[in-house]
Amino acid sequence: MNFIPKIEYIELGTGTPKSILFDSPPEGDPLSEGFKPSVKRTRSTGGTIQGQFNYTLKSYKLEFIFQTEITKLAFDDFFLNHASKVAEFNYFIHSDEVDFETFVISAGSYKPKRPIPAATVGEFEYDWTFKVERVL
Predict the structure, then answer these.
(1) Among the residues of the chain, which ranges form H helices?
(2) Does residue 119 lie in a domain region?
(3) 54 is in which domain, residue-wise?
(4) How many Å apart are CA 125 and CA 68, to the nearest integer?
(5) For the chain, what is the domain count?
(6) For residue 16, is it within any domain?
(7) In a domain, 33, yes or no
(8) What is the pTM of this model?
(9) pLDDT (tens place) for every residue of the chain, 136 residues total
């Protein structure tokens, strides 16, 4: 269990299997799950509140820091050509294990930050956040 995540997906259009191995674990708690139920509430004419449960969303909000340019370019390609089209992917919390969950990226959640100069001249490190979710 190394807490360094990995994403695997089949690229839309080409059917090519691809994967992204991150350079380090996400910042903060890598297992900080969030749950959000989808419930529609209506009030009857008699004043009674009625509820209809639809589904529950499970999500992770992830922040990656100090990632290499190669990882950033792979993630950009993944986002632009796959995830932004609401396509599913497999998210491995530990890249050295076989357990994964199938997610989609939340709308509007990919937020790249300004590159930071790395220790080597001419190289940069990249930070970004994104949120993944799935219906339980």
Answers:
(1) 69-81
(2) yes
(3) 6-135
(4) 5
(5) 1
(6) yes
(7) yes
(8) 0.78
(9) 788 889 999 988 889 999 999 888 888 776 778 898 999 999 888 889 988 998 898 888 888 888 888 888 998 899 888 988 889 999 998 888 888 989 888 877 888 888 877 777 777 788 888 888 888 8
